[in-house]
Amino acid sequence: ELEASKEEQGAPPGAGVDIPPETMVDGDPDDDPLGITEINVTTFEELRLDPAMVQAATDAWKAFIVAATSREAAGEAIYAALFEGAPSLQALFTTPRALQAIRFMNGLNSFLYALDDPPALKVLVETLGFGHLNLDVTIPRVVIFRDAILDLLQVELAHMLTDQGLAGWTCLLNYIGGAIIYIKAHYAERLRILSESWAVASNKNGTEANIKSMDSGSIERRRHKGEGNASNGMFRSLKAKFSSGQGNGNGNGNANASSGKREGNGNGDNQKVQSMAQDVPTSFNEMFVFNAAVMGFGQSLWMSEVLACFDNIVTNVANSGRLQEECDVLVLRIAKVAGGKVSLPEYKSCMLATLRSLLPKDWTTNHEVAWSWLWENVERIVSSTMGKPPAWEAALGKFLGSLDEAQMFDLRKEIYAKFFIEAPAGQDYFKQSNTYLHLIATKIMDMTIDLYRNPVKMVDDISALGLRHVGYAIPTELFGPFVSACIEVAQSVTKDELAIDAFRWSLGLIAKSLVRTILEGSTIVMKAINANSRKQMHKAISCAPRGVRSQWMLTVQVGTQSISPLEWSVESGGLEAASAIIKDLLTIRADRDRYYYGVDELFTRHPDIIQKLTNHAPGLLPELFDGLIWRSRTTSGGLRRVNYYIKHLVVDPKGEFALTLEWVAGSKDPKVVCHPVLVLVADLVWSRIACRSFLFRKAWMIFMLLLFIVSQSVMEQVNHSNDAEHQRFLIFGFRAFIYIFSMGSLIYTHVGGTVRDYWNKETVKLWRFIPVPEYLTNWQEMASLVLTLNLLVMLASEPILHCWSSPAPEGQEKRLFDEECPEYESFRAFPYAVFSMMCMFLYYILLVDLAVMNTRVSAFVLVCGRMLSEVSLFLIAIFTTVLMFSCALGCLHDNLTHFQGVHQGALSLFRMFMRMYSFADYEALDQRPLVLILVFIFLLASLLFFLNMLIAQLSRSYDAVYGDMVGYARLKRINIIVETMPTVAHRRWAEFVSGLKFDHRLEFNEGDVGLPGGVQLVEPASANPTTFDMIRRFGGSTSPTIQWPAELSTNTEDTNGFERIEKLIQKVLSRIKKSTGRRDGKTGSQQSGSDLGGDDLSGSMGSTGSDMGN
Known about the structure:
The chain is mainly alpha-helical. The strands form four sheets. Strands 4-3-10 form a three-stranded mixed β-sheet, with no helix packed on it. Strands 5-6-9 form a three-stranded antiparallel β-sheet, with no helix packed on it. Helix 3 packs across helix 6, helix 5 (118-130) crosses helix 7 and helix 20 packs across helix 23 (479-493). The longest helix has 43 residues, at 676-718. Residues 1-35, 206-277, 1049-1055 and 1082-1110 have low confidence and may be disordered.
């Protein structure tokens, strides 16, 4: 492939890394006696030129800058020459134009001014070559680059570019290109050593088996959670852990540390010895901190920042862009903790000591050279910007702080104006209003300064922002023009070069991070989601190895941030893609070794997936629940095995009661709750654990109702004379118990709820003015409050208390707890008796929840409740009609007793409606024809019209509710389960979960032990006929790293078949139309023949095609 690419680029076979030194690119060696055009890729020595040649090249460079009017313009000219003059190199230009231009400018400028210092020039070129390890740099490409620069200089400078100056530039560019090729060729072995030794030192080889079953995202996540997350707190804690073993701090290492412990412990026992052995550091981070403490670097907090970034630095050593990005972030992190001078060689010495300790058998001279080379290059990259961030932060903060609102508005407006000119395609992606676009620009400005102030947080935020842009399908090509537009606008606003440099550097780092995140996160699964195509999704996930197939659909990891393709598809409205993901995750596949079922991965990644679907895509809930059911294709004794994998619907990741039922109840969808999976979950929880707690909670109310019935209804009717002493004592005892315990507990509950809601400001407005505690929005709580108020009125008007101090009637003895006294006789009827009656109703109403014990009874109660609205409308109509006719009859001034006054007339009309009006009274109306006519009209309106209207409304409402009344009943039960479960003891819950045996594997068929996490039931064979195996089984290799064989889906085949038929019909129609058009120019007989057959055929085929399309 390398040879072919060279031939395509015009290079001779063999030209590249291994060409001999005498190979000439531009011609014969005899034509180049000085070797100016020679590109040496076999050695990398210092470049020493004649001083006159160096001076001529430097003068030419200065003249070029003067001719370009500014350094930025010179950089733009170089960029344009390379980008437009070398189309084959355009694919390598991934950095925004403004940043790349200034990099070309700064890089060439540093090389030119180092021409008279060969060692310094070699270091600069070596650093450049180290940064281009990931690029395929070849001799033909070097020639293209060199010639583009030389042509630009010749065009711009003309006669000012002397022969010596041209020769100097040619030698420099050849030297740089050959060095880049040489460095990549000879440092490959170092890269291998670094990779292998770091895998051992960071303990990654211990998880090699797990790596094969994980995608790159999960590996990256583990790195950040483990070795890559060193922080100051960890640095201090590990240092304290090992500092006790330093002895006298003489730096003798582990031996002295261990001996110091032995001296301190004296004759310690074996447990202490084992504890010491356990404290020996085994990972790179722990060993590094230990060595840092021993070597006297324990107070260098900046080392913890290097340690936090070191894993990313080592693993990305061959990726120049990522390495530069990590080093830039490292500079920012060091600037936030370093209080004085930072000596980077100190880290190198500690690093090498740590690696020697962790690799005692594998460590060689090559390892020493490779790791020293790595750190020296990192040190050079870091040193280029070390110490600058504090000054940049101050200058940029001053610049942004000096802009008022009007200036910021103009700046944001100008940014978008320039951006849309440079990249017109960007207008298709910025679809929001101008105010939102200004908000985006403001956040970008804030991000540039926040990157200096809080680099750790901003790196995570930038990664999260980049992942969101993956979902938005934003092309990365737009970031370059946008960054360039921002920099150009900033340069037009201020002349502070330091602020411009700070703004350019931070914005460039943000853009690089975003582009990298988008490129790493733009998987084929995300592209299928952006297209919202089920077909593309199937193709995308079919490429995944079977061991990580579910991870492809659930996680896209970049750095410490991740995005879920499933979650994004649901929230963005890509329901076709989401449906395909859910169906694929919940499809059981099997080979000879194991079963693959994504339910555990799904609920581990998204414990709240039910809530997300309920809020954003309720139509996908049945599809998800269907995937939790396995039914056997075979039957036995008229019964079929069914496995319900409901573990994650019952138990959350913490082992507590899952919120599944609460989320489903919040949807208030009576059809979803009737799904077999939810029916099973609700019935299991209700029958085995919630029902008992619910009855125990209601037992107190039932007991109070019985006491109330006995004291107010039963014993009051046993002996009206109230002579029995034991009766009076019992009545007093029952009432006292009700007032103390029932009313007391109700008062405590409502006072506490009211104070809590007012304290937390959880109130609702009554009539838009009066704040009412939010808990009273529950009708049961409101009924309970009314019951409390009624009991208070009963207590205030209690006859026993009022008769306590009343004297006994003459001739009778004073009786204890007597409730009959003459002076209080009138108060017994009201208010005491009336409020007692109301309390009786309220006690019964509060026990209406007991209907959930039976689903049919609960459904009937709910239907009755839904019918009350229709009955209330009927009563309002009757009341209005009665009032209208009674007022009208009162205007006749007849001397009829039953219609004298509105109240009398209303009572008489109501009696007529209830058929309680006697015939004698109707006969009295014969003498009043007008009254009789009005009464007749009233009876027609009320009995014939309104009553039949009520019957019709009730019938229609019942028909509408009947289909869902069982669902509403189950919703009611689920609500009660949700309210009851917090009161269940933890011991009972643990027993319930263990009884379900979710850890036991369930059999699919006899002898076929399957998957855990469910319960197995049997159902009638005719309930859900199943004619195919719900498990997709495959032969062949069982390696988790290979893909599943191609699956043949019946639905997909049918869909594709219909699409093919539709396309075929469309082709036939187009051909018929073309043939009909050609026939239009023929003779009349031919025309009539064409009309006779063509139109009819076209019409019939058109209708057929339309039907097929529909």
